[in-house]
Inverse folding.
């Protein structure tokens, strides 16, 4: 009986790890936003990251972008994040358009573009505009 319980427990952890490792980069970025874990998103930042907040675009380094986005999401905690549209306009890029709702009832439209570079996808653009 102990062996059976051990086997079930090990199988559960292996399957959980396998499922997490098979998520796409875009799913990781969406989950990072939903859970306010910008450090999880930052692993997909390219060397420079264009960030637009309320129609003001600034180009940041990886580290600067992480600080700016962390500050934004700390001030605008995600209560809900809905994906409105997503797609791949070509074989090397993916986008999502979403709606972010904060506990205060503020809504932001969100646009995220990721492009493939070498064998990996990198966040190339993120836009957060108040609706």
């Amino acid at each position: 009986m102990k062996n059976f319980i051990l086997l079930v427990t090990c199988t559960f952890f292996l399957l959980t790890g396998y499922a997490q490792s098979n998520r796409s980069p875009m799913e990781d970025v969406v989950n990072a936003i939903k859970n306010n874990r910008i450090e999880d998103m930052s692993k997909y930042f390219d060397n420079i990251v264009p960030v637009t907040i309320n129609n003001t675009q600034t180009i940041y380094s990886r580290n600067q972008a992480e600080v700016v986005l962390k500050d934004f999401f700390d001030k605008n905690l995600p209560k809900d994040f809905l994906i409105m549209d997503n797609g791949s306009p070509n074989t090397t890029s993916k986008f999502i358009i979403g709606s972010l709702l904060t506990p205060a009832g503020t809504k932001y439209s969100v646009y995220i573009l990721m492009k493939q570079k070498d064998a990996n996808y990198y966040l190339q653009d993120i836009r957060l505009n108040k609706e």
